[in-house]
Prior knowledge:
By secondary structure, the chain is α/β, with parallel strands linked by helices. About 20% of the residues lie in helices and about 30% in strands. The protein has a single domain (about 5-180), classed as Dihydrofolate Reductase, subunit A (3-Layer(aba) Sandwich).
Amino acid sequence: MTKISYRTAASFNGYIADEQGSVSWLYGVDRGDGPPPNVLDGVGVVVTGSTTYEWLLESANMLAEPATWQTYYASRPVFVFTARQLPAPAGADVRFVQGRVEDHLETILAAAGAEDVAISSGGELAGQFLDAGALDEITIGVAPVALANGTQLLPRRLEADRLRLTAVEQRGQLVNLTYTVSNHDS
């Protein structure tokens, strides 16, 4: 069964990006020895918003070096929620959509097939999946950093009765907390 997951890193006070929209604060966090797990194993589709998409294009120079896209995403379709015209790396399967998550959910799930959907974006887009009753799992890599302000992890109220802690993993100074989300009222 296809699962829709939001996986992100956050400061211990709940921000995923600083006031300038940067995640550079995360680069200084010790993530332990050994290679990090491939978070896209078992993922058939990635969903992102325009801000994250543009940051990725710029930070990895993907328009000038489109082979970099393949390193990150291989042949997976990437759905980008945006109201603007944006470029795509040559050879990348990027699908620009606009509007409500509900309007595109069936298409996203069909593109994923039997594999999972990964939300790789800010908390607002993940919150829209939550609002649509279509968010199954949240994994937060909590970093030992406090940010004064920035982009919230999930700008929604989500009570404990809808979350069940299913995994805790320490990787260096980062602690990954995985929760399943109940998509019905208790």
